[in-house]
Write the structure tokens for this entry.
Amino acid sequence: MFRNLSLFAVAASAALVTSLRAEKVDMSPEQLRKTATHVITGQVTVVYERTETTGEWKYTKYAAEIRVEECEKGDGIKKGDLVYARYWRRAWIGKGRVPPSTAGHRGLPSDGESLRVYLARNAYDGFSDNKDGGFNVIGANGFEKLKPGSR
């Protein structure tokens, strides 16, 4: 009985902390595909990053260079192309508690990983509208890690 009560207390605390942070809820694979203008599979060749401070947040902005294996949705991308996918994370550096907000993308890729990536070009990317022609990863969970040979 005490063990079940302890597990309930831990779960309730985690739910409260998550709700206080107001983290963006993951989209289902179906929602990601519907939101995305492009869906690709491929291997990450390199990840570029830059960190900057804006107000009370430290932002890390990334661009992953992905060698395309297959374009599952969208026009203009073919096998062998390089796609540069943008995404970001942020950390609170201000005083006091973190205000309700999102920390950005989750499940960030590493060099050499095989992925399915849900992208937005000149469209809503899960956080805001992207109108500059670049590819933004759908937020916050637009990366799907694949096992080699599972595409």
Remarks:
- The chain has one domain: 2-146.
- Confidence is low (pLDDT under 50) at residues 5-19.
